[in-house]
Amino acid sequence: MMVSLPTRRADWRLMGRTARLVVTIPAYAAVALAATVAGLTAFSLSLNVSLVVDTLSLPISTGSKVELLVSLYPFVGTAFTPLQGGLLVVVAATLGVNVAMVAYHFREHGLSLQQGGTSVLGAVLGALGAGCAACGSAILLGLLSLVGVSTSLLWLPLDGLEFAVVALLVVVLSTYWLADGMRGGQINGCPVDA
Amino acid sequence: MDDLTRRRLLGGTAGLVAGTAGCVGGDANTDADATPTDRELMTSGSSDVDFDHPSATGINDQPTLGDRSRQGVIVAFEDPSCPSCRRFNQNTFPQIESELLAPGDVAYVFRGYPVVYEWGGPATRALEATFARDPAAVWDLKAHYFDQQGQFSTDNVLDRTRSYLDDATDVDGSAVVTEASEDTTAEAVQADYDAGRAAGASGTPTFYLFRDGEYQTTVSGAQDFTVFENVLLG
Lengths: 194, 234
Prior knowledge:
The structure holds 2 protein chains of 2 kinds. Chain A is mainly alpha-helical. Chain A has a two-stranded antiparallel ribbon. Chain A has helices at residues 9-23, 26-45, 49-57, 62-70, 82-109, 113-134, 138-146, 162-181, and strands spanning 135-137, 186-187, 190-191. In chain A, helix 2 packs across helix 6 and helix 5 runs parallel beside helix 8. Chain B is an alpha+beta fold. Helices cover 49% and strands 12% of the residues of chain B. In chain B, helix 3 (83-101) links the parallel strand 2 and strand 3 (106-112). The relative contact order of chain B is 0.20. The chains are: A mainly alpha, B alpha+beta. The A-B interface holds A 47-48, 50-51, 54-55, 58-61, 64-65, 67-68, 71-72, 76-79, 81, 131, 133-139, 141-142, 151-152, 159 and B 79, 82-85, 87-88, 91-92, 115-118, 154, 202-206, 211, 216-227, 230-231, 234.
């Protein structure tokens, strides 16, 4: 089976138009927003699961607990640089739109396993990217050393956020395949193909 | 006499000397609000503690700012070559030092955990060798590694370490480099590494927080001052 890639300007226009049509439906906009928040939360908190769990039972005030947990997010606390935080927000937002499109496609047209699977893969890679960004490059370097890549010669310009970049690519691809699957149809009364 | 015991005795003696002689300088202090005197006082001695947690194995032999019997104790696993450790040391640590350590509420224990880039290994050994000679200087050398992180490589780390120690501290840089090269600090480095592994540290920086002698939680990444303040004093 030939894999379709968004190589033409028309492919990107199709993707943008399809996504826009889906998220202008209030119910799916809510899904996109919820998925974005959930994605960003997963990315931000995944590295500190024990801290999050322990915080609930710490002998501190509720206000302190909330302040502590909120500080784990990009741009609130210091765990991520602006570049890392920005990339994670973009991945989360793209994932949110993607999930809304998955939900729409599932309800209206049925959904192939491949399309759903790539969305999940994007989410997992996003979490890995956040983890690598927050703890240095240790996880990524460890994984690469397992497959024989010499870490002494390695330079990671994004300090381990490379996973998040890959996640963004995967989610964008998934979004394109979803849009491609809806080609020729209508969303909320509007034709997908402009 | 094993290496850890020898190091501890040397460290205790050197700490008393450092408290009066002064042995810091250069750019190492530019990233911290605490004055050299504050830092020297904070390294001048500490109570022995017995925390029931793998991360705390042997912490009475580790570089420590403040007294370990304080209300809060941070056991930090850091790698000099780790970019997130650099950001933590430049963004969060100065506030911890001035608002938690200096007032006497919290103690900070450093444990080397070289798991990122290769030059972090010799740098960590040099930190151990420096600690054996001057417990205050180890904090300045650590800050120097983070301040100049982009300049270090496996090939130059020991030469640059020698230059820094000779120029900015009273520590004999050549002796430190010789000890780091000959792996005589390997046992101390391994003790930290084993403690980190046993505690489940999967990356750097990783912090184990104790309050009134009891383990509270684990913090990963260059997290905000708010996290440490709320867990330890909130």
